[in-house]
Amino acid sequence: MTATPDLRSPRLASPDLLRSVFRQHAAGVAVITAQGPAGPVGFTATSLVSVSAEPPMLSFGIGTGASSWPAVSEAEHVGVHILGEHQLDLASTFARSGADRFGAGTRWYEGPEGVPVLDGTLAWLVCRVAARVPAGDHRIVLAEAVVGDPSGVGRPLLYHQGRFNALRD
């Protein structure tokens, strides 16, 4: 069913309007990791975008107030992990403020360039950070893929209407 847009009473742009609109947008769920001076950091991201095939580049957003930002702001390399629907707990852990993200419940390894690589994801990349572009209270990080593995098994985890979801057939 399609709905005709109500052009008589649109809402003025605001942070709340943007959040409300993007609750309608289903997005894949990724975890971004980096090695910081005090150890590994990471966060759940739904802003992951493929930017270029040649060279292989991607982007993601991170808030400058995020606990991972200081490490990501200095990191030369980051890890990008595509989560499967079996990893809802992992997505929740990396999304929760104050969580012990690399504690006993998280299986990970030191990967190429010293980047933390999470176990059991659908796919992962280690990327060289090419740029950090200011965008309001966030930064858009552009990164070039260096090495990775797309061979994980399962279906992707999605984020929609403020919660994690699985695909339906």
UniProtKB/TrEMBL annotation:
Keywords: Oxidoreductase. InterPro entries: Flavin_Rdtase-like_dom, NADH-dep_flavin_reductase, Split_barrel_FMN-bd. It is an enzyme of class 1 (oxidoreductase). Its EC number is 1.5.1.-. Pfam families: Flavin_Reduct. One of its GO terms (molecular function) is oxidoreductase activity. Residues 22-166 form the Flavin reductase like domain. It comes from the Bacteria. PANTHER family: FLAVIN REDUCTASE (PTHR30466), FMN REDUCTASE (NADH) RUTF (PTHR30466:SF1). This is Flavin reductase family protein. It comes from Streptomyces longisporoflavus.
